[in-house]
Amino acid sequence: MAQAQTVDVSRIIDERGVTWFNIRLVIFGFFIVLVDGYDITAMGFAAPSLIRVWGITDQSTLGPVLGASLIGMLFGAPILGMVGDRFGRKKAIVSSCLIFGVFTWLAVLANSLPQLFVLRLIAGIGIGGLMPNIIALTAEFAPRRYRATMVIVMFTGVSFGGAIPGVVSALLVPNYGWPILFTIGGIIPVVTAFACVIGLPESIKYLVVRKEQRRVARLMIALEPTRAFPPNSEFIIRDEKQHPGISPKYLFRDGLGLITPLLWVLFVLNLMGYFFLVSWTPVLLSSANIPLGKAALAQSLFQFGGAIGGWILCRPMDTKGLTPIAILFVIAIPAVALIGYLGTISEPLLMIAEFFAGFCVLGGQFGLNAVSALIYPTSFRSKGAGWALGIGRIGSIVGPILGGVLIATHLPVQLLYVLAAIPFAIGAVACFVLARLYFRRFAGAGMGQRETFERG
Predict the structure, then answer these.
(1) Distance CA 252, CA 258 (A)
(2) What is the mean pLDDT of residues 346-350?
(3) In this structure, is the dihedral angle defined by the CA atoms of residues 186, 387, 309 and 71, taken in order, positive or negative?
(4) Which SS3 state, helix, strand or coil, does residue 7 take?
(5) Other beta carbons within 10 Å of 118
(6) What pTM was estimated for this model as a whole?
(7) DSSP character for 445?
(8) Which residues pair with 8 in a beta bridge?
(9) Is the per-residue pLDDT at 236 higher than 50?
(10) Which pLDDT score, from 0 to 100, does residue 115 have?
(11) 301 vs 304: CA distance, rounded Å
(12) What tens digit of pLDDT does each residue of 240-251 get?
């Protein structure tokens, strides 16, 4: 009987160039998170219409509703991240799409703020659960030289999705009312879930860890159609320690004791600022006598700037690690602080400020999303990303709610945006510290090189 041939899956993936398989997966993931991005920002664009149609006199009462999906994401990210590690990335992604699609669709039937709060809360569980699993899936098929690049390019779909409600708000809401935002945001994720069942592959590294050799063999043939694998091949991953169970204690071992909590702090700070801007900017700019269409355009430019920021961040992160993100935190401080002032003196300057704020804030978040997966091994990659995204939702919840509290004090719009820049100032310090710790732990390796460093 012939001896089994050992095949190191991770080495083959790392040493390959980018193929059509990778490009197709990134495109697929891009459109999946595009739908996710749409649902994240839809509530913010529905808010001005809700205020008018429901006769809401106290804008601060919208704070809990704006934060409801974020509360759901707080639980959905770690829970469905663990589901992805245990039962497969693909199953978790399909489940997430169905959850947030159905409950976003049901929001059309809401006729009170409490009802809308509950529906957005449940939808948020699905929105949160999608992110860590699609990040992990993309990372585990990517060659090491382009790992951060492929994760970030895929995830910039969030910014394009986040911009679409602005277009819908400007073109369709005047004729069809706020429910059209949730009708579109509900139907498309359900369709996406069925598309994932048909066309989305399971993570090959996950299948190796779970000892599903036949499924691994089929995927390896799809990845390497010109290479023959003997029927008795044994597929392994040499460069990663395996960690059984679902305990989060592994997130703090092997040099990660300070890296993990600092990463969580950065998620909290950046998402606090980001969701304040996403949730309240349409309302704040409208209250500053800027037409709703112009306010929607400004938010769309914020999202577009985030996509550009993420694309520019890709290659520097692959080679320089976290330092490029720290630089974006620094630039975000004046970019955000000036939005309120520029919005009162010049619409063109407001658009420029929104673009650069998105470039730094959302572009930096794409980088953090990549970091949350790439510093952890396959056996708890979705879990690591899920915990970072889940803990980060504390900031995303606090941002809109704190914004409502500050707005209730009737502070000037200019001062509100100066206060919104404070999390980025703190984040800049924390990110430089984290960059230094990562440099010391992985000998200066870029984000795409961590596994190579451990293997060497």
Answers:
(1) 7
(2) 83
(3) positive
(4) strand
(5) 16
(6) 0.75
(7) -
(8) 236
(9) yes
(10) 92
(11) 5
(12) 554 455 556 767
Work out the number of other CB atoms within 10 angstroms of the CB of residue 433.
Answer: 16
Identify the three-state secondary structure at position 6. Answer: strand
Percentage of the chain beyond pLDDT 70 is: 89
**pLDDT of 195 over the 80 cut:** yes
- Report how far residue 113's alpha carbon sits from residue 300's, in angstroms, rounded to the nearest whole number: 26
Contact 385, 264 (CB under 8 A): no
114 burial (CB, 10 Å; 0-12 / 13-18 / 19+) is exposed
If you search the block for the tokens 């991953």, which residue do you land on? 237
Using alpha carbons only, give the angle 107, 111, 117 rounded to the nearest 5 degrees: 55
Instruction: Classify the phi-psi angles of 410: left when phi > 0, otherwise alpha if psi is within -120 to 50, otherwise beta.
Output: left
C-alpha to C-alpha distance for 108 and 103, rounded to whole angstroms: 9
Task: List, as one string, the DSSP characters of 197-263.
Answer: HHHPPPPHHHHHHTT-HHHHHHHHHHH-TTS---TT-EEE-SSS----SS-GGGGGSTT-TTHHHHH
CA atoms within 13 A on the CB side of 300: 14
Q: Pick 6-455's CATH classification: 1.20.1250.20, 1.10.1740.10, 3.30.2000.10, 1.20.120.80.
A: 1.20.1250.20
Please calculate the CA angle 444-448-449 and round it to the nearest 5 degrees: 50
pLDDT (0 to 100) of residue 430: 93
Q: Tell me, what DSSP letter sits at residue 4?
A: P
Compute φ and ψ for 17, nearest 5 degrees.
-85, 180
* pLDDT tens readout for residues 55-103: 887 777 777 887 788 788 888 888 888 888 788 889 999 999 999 899 9
3-class DSSP assignment, residue 142: coil
Listed by start position, the domains of the chain span: 6-455
